[in-house]
């Protein structure tokens, strides 16, 4: 049986949707699919050469009349070109806006039935950006027009149906982790770089946007550090970093907080930590919590959104409301003050992450979806307006 040729589009810079798209491409390529990344830059995590992986840059021409280069049109043209030249079967777009619009235009430009569109909804494309009045109707239209739509959690699927009154057939395919790469590693040298033997090591990794609720990370850490010797590792960068740095200064935590910036190699840093803080205002899934769990790190994450679909409070991690600073501090001190409990929860976390949320299990769900999509027969008859 011929493995499908798939065009994958994502935001190639930092961000969970880009990670999922890149990792999915890597796994599918290893399984024999031809994978064509169509994006403005080579997605991170793909810097090394990989057999079966190709990269097609989306050029963004400038012209004095343009205030902004029309990305969606360049994307659609590149998708159309790559689909024809490379015989793509599927355009799989990650993050609806505007990637599903690019795929829709490309499909319209191609002979009927030539290519199918899979749209994966990741989070703020539905919960924030897609609900902007200027994007709402087109987001709804693109959900309806995709040949298949997936969401990374049941929460996100339900939210899509609630807000857009469509997409009841959206398939939930959760985020996944490569549990061979993200695995507990007992490397005392890495830990020693950041913390003394008697200190606990907490970590937050994100793109430091408002939705990540980073002030809560500092508030929680300040109170934990007042109660027990501890350090905080901050990984990533973004618009909230200035506020975070100010808070760290105001609270006199400069010697306790280590800013690493947007470094790669999370899989080597996470295993050195004791607790991951992810107090987001909401999180459709919360990929970094899953990656931490695979490394044997207990997550303390937001209860708003889809994290509860893989974190079981008090068993393999903690879920707290993002406003509940007291609750987060209490949970952190409980697990950091009881090594046996932390070890037990870490083992549960690792097992759960590597099982149902491990790459083999989840990538197969995408492959099954592609197979169904490419099999003859009608699809999404209730939604596709152009039949
Ligand atoms: O929706 C976003 O904020 C962007 C996206 C990203 O590129 O980081 O994050 C979302 O997608 C991730 C991968 O599926 C999920 O793990 C994140 O929970 C989700 N972010 C939010 O829902 C805030």
Provide a concise account of the structure shown.
The chain is 41% helix and 16% strand.
Give the topology, please.
Layout lengths: L4 E5 L6 H15 L3 E6 L13 E5 L13 H16 L3 E5 L1 H14 L6 E6 L2 H4 L8 H10 L2 E4 L2 H11 L6 E2 L15 H7 L5 E6 L8 H14 L2 E6 L5 H10 L6 E5 L4 H4 L5 E4 L8 H8 L3 E5 L15 E3 L4 H12 L2 H16 L4 H16 L13
Parallel strand pairs: 1-2, 1-4, 2-3, 4-5, 5-6, 6-7, 8-9, 8-11, 9-10, 11-12, 12-13
The structure holds ligand GMT.
Ligand GMT binds next to helix 1.
Note down, in words, how this protein is organized.
Helices cover 41% and strands 16% of the residues. It is of the alpha/beta class. It folds into 2 domains: 5-176 and 358-374, Rossmann fold (3-Layer(aba) Sandwich), CATH 3.40.50; 188-355, Glycogen Phosphorylase B (Rossmann fold). Helix 11 links the parallel strand 11 and strand 12 (298-302). The two termini are 27 Å apart. It binds ligand GMT. Ligand GMT binds next to helix 1.
Q: What count of helical segments does DSSP give?
A: 14
Taken together, the total number of domains comes to 2
Q: What fraction of the residues are assigned to beta strands by DSSP?
A: 15-25%
Structural class: alpha/beta
Uncertain spans = 382-387
Could you say what the CATH architecture of the largest domain is? 3-Layer(aba) Sandwich
Helix and strand sequence: EHEEHEHEHHEHEHEHEHEHEHEEHHH
Strand order of the largest sheet: 3-2-1-4-5-6-7
Which short descriptors sum up this protein?
7-stranded parallel sheet; binds ligand GMT; Rossmann fold; disordered C terminus; single chain; 6-stranded parallel sheet; globular; alpha/beta
